[in-house]
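Quick start: what a row looks like.
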Amino acid sequence: MNMAKNYVIDTTSLISYFEKVFKEKPKISRPALRVIGNAFKMHSEIKLSIPSIVFIEIYDKWYRDEEMAAKIKIEIMNLIMERPNIEIKPIEKEVLENFLKIKDKSIKIDNHDKIIMASSMMLQWPLITSDSKIIKYNRRHGVIPYILN
């Protein structure tokens, strides 16, 4: 499989890459971490799209106090804003249309993850995730080019 140049990343992937900020062990593979790391290098050819819902999830789970809020802003947000090849993807009409297409009664994917999947579907970019439900859904329905986990 050729390595793509464009990827969508989910919340777990972003938290895994910034493990020192979140004090969490990475939940994605070394190759996946390497792709994200390469995207954060200046003048990288790798493009990352981070669905805006990722930051809502981070806000819900990680903004415990002013110190953590400042750490996230300085060490993550500022870095993302400095990189022209990394975008924060809004929840736009086409993302919502794809969101509504994600249906499988036997795989219960939460709405945050559906929005992340829908962003990947819209762009037709591979998704970096370790989410077993998303992986299972894509294996069954093939809506995303591939998943790097």
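That is the whole record. The chain has one domain: 6-148. The helical segments are 11-17, 19-22, 30-39, 53-62, 66-82, 93-101, 111-123, 132-141.
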